[in-house]
Amino acid sequence: MDIYGNLYEEIFQKIKENDKIIIHRHERPDPDAYGSQGAMYQLIKENFPEKTVITVGKDSPSLEFLFKNSEVIEEDYKDALVIVTDTANFPRIDGKLFTKNNFLIKIDHHPPLDNYGGINLVNTDVSSCSELIYNFYEYLNKNYGIKLNDEAAKLLYLGIVGDTGRFLFPNTSNDTLRVASELIKYDFNMSALLDKMEIISENIMRFRAFIFENYDVYQDGVAYLKITKEDMDKYGVDPGEVSTGVNLLRSLKDLYAWCFAIDEGNKVRVRIRSKGPVINTLAEKYAGGGHPLASGATVKNWEELDDLLDDMARVVAEYLRENNIKIEN
């Protein structure tokens, strides 16, 4: 049995041992956070209907059509197993009412900078946490006859679609496409699901026009956008909604890395994306991290953002030089 098989087995035994299970995800959830959390809930309830299973975390207005989480208090965590999906580091867990008495299981696909769980199932080779949970299901199905219901399949498909940019991002592998092909065999309306993912409010639509009108080129191959609190107030959007537009700059000619810098009052949250240069080590320098081509960071103010942009320009310049890429001005 390989390392993942051993971890799948350990997690399954913990699930069987516990009558109450509470499932968390990361703050400002994206489709993969919703998909992995919700699918884990469905997987457990489908096969162990007698267990108490609870999902927690602040709902996202754009994704709460999938399911809504429960309100919990500290007492709810008594004798509960806690599972956290799609969350790289402890501070990003949405909701921390659990205590040291609760056994934590981490299931994630980000680089393992913070192994906060008693069991840490981390696979950076998969496209998404949702793909990882499908692999976990396949192991359980083969060895224990565990079932996957239609709702779980829908949620996993959504999570994979979200983290692969509808299979356009380079994290899409042969295995990713195989898993997706298995999931669409289940009974859910794939077209309607994807349509709902695309629906946005008029405020966000107008804010996206702001993105295209106001981004700046910092240096060859590097672009950025500063979003102030005044900007967000003007368009009636919040930081989570702003972040959904970060990939809109992806199609810009001769762009290799870019970021959104979002004013959150006492700090500036930075969403960094790349089409080649590795940027997660850069993000780690600025209190962040993530994937090689998609990461997040935090700076104290706009002056420190200039430092981050300088580092970003250096990383891109090195990438262009190493790959003999010339940008025509």
From TrEMBL:
Domain DHHA1 stretches: 222-317
Domain of life: Bacteria
The protein's name: DHHA1 domain protein
InterPro entries in the cross-refs: DDH_dom (IPR001667), DHH_sf (IPR038763), DHHA1_dom (IPR003156), Oligoribo/pAp-PDE_c-di-AMP_PDE (IPR051319)
Gene Ontology molecular-function annotations: nucleic acid binding
Pfam families recorded: DHH, DHHA1
Residue ranges of every copy of the DDH domain listed in the record: 20-160
